[in-house]
């Protein structure tokens, strides 16, 4: 198992990724920046805002990590998401 420093995260939803979860480019090759849920055939699967993505992902996070409450998940994601490639401001 990779350690945290070598772990890749989707640059749209922050999900930890392995090669099996990579999204695809327009030519069908793997895209290491985005997961298959966020990026398919060279396009994002949703055109929602960062805030909408945070709301969606925070619910998923609390399902996967029941020890975390909604407020903790939202706080963590509000810190992380603005640093991801898809949402970072130039």
Biggest sheet, strands in spatial order?
1-2
Taking the alpha carbons of the first and last residues, their distance comes to 33 Å
Name the poorly predicted regions.
Answer: none
The biggest beta sheet is recorded as: 2 strands, antiparallel
Number of strands: 6
Helix percent band: 25-40%
Shape: globular
How does the helix and strand content classify structurally? alpha+beta
Number of helices: 2
> What is the typical, i.e. mean, pLDDT?
92
The fraction of residues in strands falls at: 15-25%
* Helix/strand order, N-terminal first: EEEEEEHH
Using only C-alpha atoms, the radius of gyration works out to 13 Å
Topology:
Layout: E1 8-9, E2 16-17, E3 22-24, E4 30-35, E5 39-40, E6 43-44, H1 50-64, H2 70-80
Antiparallel strand pairs: 1-2, 3-4, 5-6
In short:
The protein is of the alpha+beta class and 90 residues long.
Description:
The chain is of the alpha+beta class. Helix content is 29%, strand content 19%. Strands 1-2 form a two-stranded antiparallel ribbon. The chain has a two-stranded antiparallel sheet with strand order 3-4. Strand 5 and strand 6 form a beta hairpin.
Supply database-style keywords.
two-stranded antiparallel ribbon, 90 residues, alpha+beta, 2 helices, two-stranded antiparallel sheet, globular
């Amino acid at each position: 198992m990779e350690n945290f420093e070598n772990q890749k995260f989707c640059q749209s939803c922050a999900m930890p990724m392995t090669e099996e979860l990579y999204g695809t480019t327009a030519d069908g090759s793997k895209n290491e920046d985005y997961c298959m849920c966020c990026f398919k055939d060279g396009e994002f699967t949703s055109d929602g805002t960062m805030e909408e993505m945070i709301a969606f992902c925070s619910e998923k996070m609390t399902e996967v990590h029941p020890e975390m409450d909604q407020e903790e998940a939202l706080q963590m994601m509000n810190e992380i998401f603005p640093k991801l490639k898809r949402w970072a401001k130039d």
